[in-house]
Amino acid sequence: SRVTSLGQLEMTWRSRLHFPPLLVRVLHKSRLRYYGKPEKKMDMPYQAYFEVADGSGMMSVVLWNSLCPEWYNSMKVGTVLLLEQYAIKTSYPFKTQPTPGDSQMKRFTTIEISLNVRDPPTKISIIPEEMVKPEWRLPEVKYRFITRSELDDLPNNHSCDVIGLVTFVGRAERTRKREHGEDFWLYRWAHAIDGTSDQPFILELFATSQPDVFERIHPMTYLVCTQMRVVRDHTENPPSRTYLTTSNESQIFVSGWHKGQPYTKDTKVKSFIRWTKTQNEADQMKKAVIGGYYPFPRPPNNFSKY
């Protein structure tokens, strides 16, 4: 009875010192961010964003510092949370925005919820799915799965989710985060097929905050990638092939991680599983490739351009 909604919170937050509990479902989850600097002495300079929703709409939640190693892995997409003793701040304007699966959902973008170790010490509780009541009106997690045959019609930077059977996975490579910086992004290329086209999905998979999954991408696994972005460059002649790259909110799952995930109910995922049952595993294994150098996107035709 004391629970408030995100909509009420946005209207009344300026006039309150203490905020009532919130019941929300996690719809999106960002990668873990490390913001430590040598000159600043902080024990655990970590931060992660979550997009959470209730019956009134969707809002950002920021998990700070030592709460990240404690809670980040438990707060999965689909998890229902009871939040108490949190803080409210005006939103950080430069944060990346995931594309919601439900385009009708209202977004509250003026404020965000801060979960801290102190000032005030936030209390987080995870509600098991079997205890979630229909009268709480918590939205279900929705996805934007596409098939390979639909990819060629999508514009640059379009957000989508994909599922496919891995036929190629490259070695892990590094690229500098900034031109002269010391930090690197780790990524690998993969191909996945879904039976709707002769062409595979070409996937540029950056290591998100799921190192265990990133290491286990191998041929013949069922790969699910959420919140991917379409990359197409029509300025090249001939135009380079379209590929998908991970975003800040991407989640990656391979065989062994699918059980209980919300996307297992999606119609396109079910259709893909039906297709895999018609395939001969030995035939697909013959076409599978692992490792090696994968020059993509293609280098320019002449050396001076390169």
Automatic annotation (TrEMBL):
A Pfam family annotated for this UniProt entry:
RADX
The portions of this protein that span the membrane are: none
Any one Gene Ontology MF annotation carried by this entry is:
single-stranded DNA binding
Q: Which InterPro entries match?
A: NA-bd_OB-fold, RADX
Q: Name the domain of life.
A: Eukaryota
Against PANTHER family, the record matches this protein to:
RPA-RELATED PROTEIN RADX
Q: What is this protein called?
A: RADX protein
